[in-house]
Specification:
This protein has about 260 residues and is an alpha/beta fold. It has a single domain (about 1-255), classed as Rossmann fold. It is about 45% helix and about 15% strand. The chain has helices at about 15-30, 45, 50-60, 65-70, 95-100, 110-120, 135-145, 155-160, 165-175, 195-205, 220-225, 230-235, 240-255, and strands at about 1-5, 35, 80, 85-90, 125-130, 150-155, 180-190. It has a 7-stranded mixed sheet. The longest helix is centred in the C-terminal third of the chain and has 16 residues, at about 240-255.
Amino acid sequence: MKTICFANNKGGSGKSTTCSNVGYFLAESGKKVLLVDGDMQMNLTLSLFPEEEALAFAAGENLYTAVKKEADVRGCIRSSAYENLDLVPSSTLMSGIEFDLFTKWQREYILKKCLQPVKDEGKYDYILIDAPPTLGGWVMNILAASDHLVIPVEASPWGLFGLSNMFEFLSDVKPVAPGLAVAGIAVTKVDGRKNYFKQTLETLKELPAHVFETCIHLDSSIEWSQDNSKPVGKYRPSARSSKEYRALAEEVEKVCR
């Protein structure tokens, strides 16, 4: 089993979309996948379930309640409509998770302990965690619980802003996450008509990290799939973004073996 987190301190980089669609295509290929929604915005949860169900999860057992109680997350797992794909939903109460973690002993490893029974059970091939767009104790928890990190980056000037802070943070958390490997940078929201895309790639190649060959282009099918609470691969399999996310999932699987 491999645990892969999707993190970037810059909001709007496509973390949740990338996490959900990579998870969907890994599941479609026959891998058993557990998605974990670590963001109070609940976008990963909403990518698989309609709003009414997502809000019901938020009011019941979810990742926030498990972490607060330091409990086994298996009691929070929800089966999605897709074969091999399950979810631990989030809650808007995750906005207070930093405060809840502050007084806990060995607080950097709470999520790791909550996930350990799932790993010991061996039911899943992959756990994919969607992190919030912040750098702090909760993201440190997510990194400490993961084997690999994928950094989605929007192909824009602001998309690159703050990426150096992300790598500085990774250096700071190395003592609590010594086994974490940066799987690579996934370039998202690409507009091929603009020359800045080429400059983005050139800038990223200067960083000490692998850049995935597959880039995700702007595609209205992504927004429509989100509006329908479905992965784009299910909503419109023929869409350009669907084919790109399938290819990215294959790349992620190869790198994270």
